[in-house]
Amino acid sequence: MDSELERARALFLDGVGHYQAGRLRQAEQAFAAALVLAPGRPSVLTNLGVVRLKLGRLPEGLALLQQALAQEPDNTEALGHCGTALADLGRPAEALAHFDRAVALDPSAPAPWMFRGNVLKELGRPQEAAASFREALARGGDPQLLAYYLAGVEAGEAPAQPPRVYVEALFDGYATGFDQHLQQALRYDAPQVLVQRMAAAGARFRNALDLGCGTGMAGPLLRPLAERLTGVDLSANMLDQARALAVYDALEHADALEFLAAAPQAFDCVLAADVFIYVGELSQVFRAVAARMSPGGVFAFTVEESTRGELELRSTLRYAHSEAGIRRLAQEHGFRVAAMERRPVREEQRQAIPGLFCWLEREPATRPS
């Protein structure tokens, strides 16, 4: 019996090592093997549950965490992860109960306060959400991230950009099942719309860039139009999904601006489908694309449309941009608006989200007379 517990402990520690190194499938195997040898052990149940959440298997992960809580109702780690799983499964009221218990048991930890604020926001209780975010801030939470969250629930000037850690973590955690969710639940077709117009015009590109390529939804569509196709994204997990498609000549894990600043080559097509909702103020992006785009090149992208100003941070923590703002940026950075269409970018809760689909053409640089 003791030898089995020792083997279980060794497997558990292997799982922790794999998890910390980002090797989620190996971590899952190690924790699952440990659970066979030490059935019902709360620490093993919790860690295996967390890994399965990270792998996108939310119901399985939640079930394991609930088993851990059945034995240790005051396990704040399991409470927190249960809360996030319930929130991701569209059960915010249940999630809130878990976070309420977590902060009651350990009010000093910032993370449960922050997640509690996010759930309260989803429940339409912005004042309580703001108070919870402030509790997280007072307890040492990330000031940049929490300022961003507060801007989403309180009136005031929007931050120019979201924190990088927010965007990277958001999509790393969402990579598995992302395409299916977008296409089926949200009726998302932005890549198809952007590429179809270019294909219908007979466009062919020597060097195309899929900016914020994510899991590569645009890749198979853009590939027939491009001699060379590069994808860039902040999320390593998303890039793993894109790599499996085998349609990109290169995939880069980088921030869009950093990539464009360092890129040695020019592009004659830059596509950004549903990317700028997580970028914010776009003048730096326009400047960087203009600097790396051949004359006559196409810059095709979507934005959520704002009617409240050039830049708006919504309660969804996504940015919206106005038509006037896009046209101003195009003119300032040497682009001609070839086409612009108003149409929904996606659906949420069966409501169409208004958007702008934009196709800009890089004008030749003016020469001094």
UniProtKB/TrEMBL annotation:
Residue span, Methyltransferase type domain: 209-301
Keywords assigned by UniProt, alphabetized: Repeat, TPR repeat
Molecular function GO terms recorded: S-adenosylmethionine-dependent methyltransferase activity
SMART domains (alphabetical): TPR
UniProt repeat feature TPR, residue ranges: 8-41, 42-75, 76-109
Short name of any one Pfam family annotated for the protein: Methyltransf_11
InterPro entries: Methyltransf_11, SAM-dependent_MTases_sf, TPR-like_helical_dom_sf, TPR_rpt, Ycf3
SUPFAM superfamilies named in the record: S-adenosyl-L-methionine-dependent methyltransferases (SSF53335), TPR-like (SSF48452)
PANTHER family: TETRATRICOPEPTIDE REPEAT PROTEIN 6, UDP-N-ACETYLGLUCOSAMINE--PEPTIDE N-ACETYLGLUCOSAMINYLTRANSFERASE SPINDLY-RELATED
Protein name (database record): Tetratricopeptide repeat protein
Source organism of the structure: Ramlibacter montanisoli
